[in-house]
Design brief:
- By secondary structure, the protein is mainly α.
- The protein is 46% helix and 7% strand.
- It has a two-stranded antiparallel ribbon.
- Helix 3 packs antiparallel against helix 4.
- It is flat and about 90 Å long.
């Protein structure tokens, strides 16, 4: 027959567990034998706890109260817009510094031809202009997709509520 578990009473020294985990080693007796550990990984019962502590001297209430209290759980940090903006600006500054170093290290002039235009430009500047041009093309494609998705969402909202007029 199984016993109904009783509530834990922190003021009762018999309820205080010897170790946090049954598998933890004790400095004086070593790890618990396998027959004293239940299948769930915890202690098998209060009788097993008494059997494991029978060979050791029970700590007095004064010794038990001198143990330091566990530290409180650390507070979870919330992500704020200001924090995200700060992180984005810091990342942008790092990229800008790397870009300036790249441009300064690539000052050799190269011949550039584009749609019939021809000129001589420093290599770093030419690559920077190409990168900015690529970014502009990606931004245009992204803006077109966002507009497409907004129009589709607007159509779905209008079909869901035909009697209600939206902007």
């Amino acid at each position: 027959m199984t016993e109904t578990p009783q509530r834990f009473n922190p003021t009762n020294p018999d309820d205080a567990p010897a170790t946090r985990y049954a598998e933890a080693a004790d400095a004086t007796t070593g790890p618990l034998p396998a027959e004293q550990v239940s299948g769930a990984g915890g202690l098998a019962g209060s009788t097993d706890v008494a059997a494991t502590t029978a060979g050791r001297a029970e700590p007095s209430r004064a010794e038990a109260s001198t143990e330091p209290a566990p530290a409180p759980a650390p507070e979870t940090r919330q992500v704020t817009r200001a924090g995200m903006v700060w992180a984005a600006v810091a990342c942008a500054l790092v990229v800008l510094i790397l870009l300036i170093a790249f441009i300064l290290q690539n000052q050799e002039y190269v011949q550039v031809k584009f749609f019939g235009l021809e000129g001589s430009v420093p290599l770093g500047i030419a690559l920077f202009i190409a990168a900015v041009g690529g970014g502009v093309l990606v931004a245009i494609a992204g803006a077109a997709r966002i507009i497409q998705l907004r129009l589709a969402a607007h159509r779905v909202r209008r079909q869901a509520s035909p009697g209600t007029r939206t902007r």
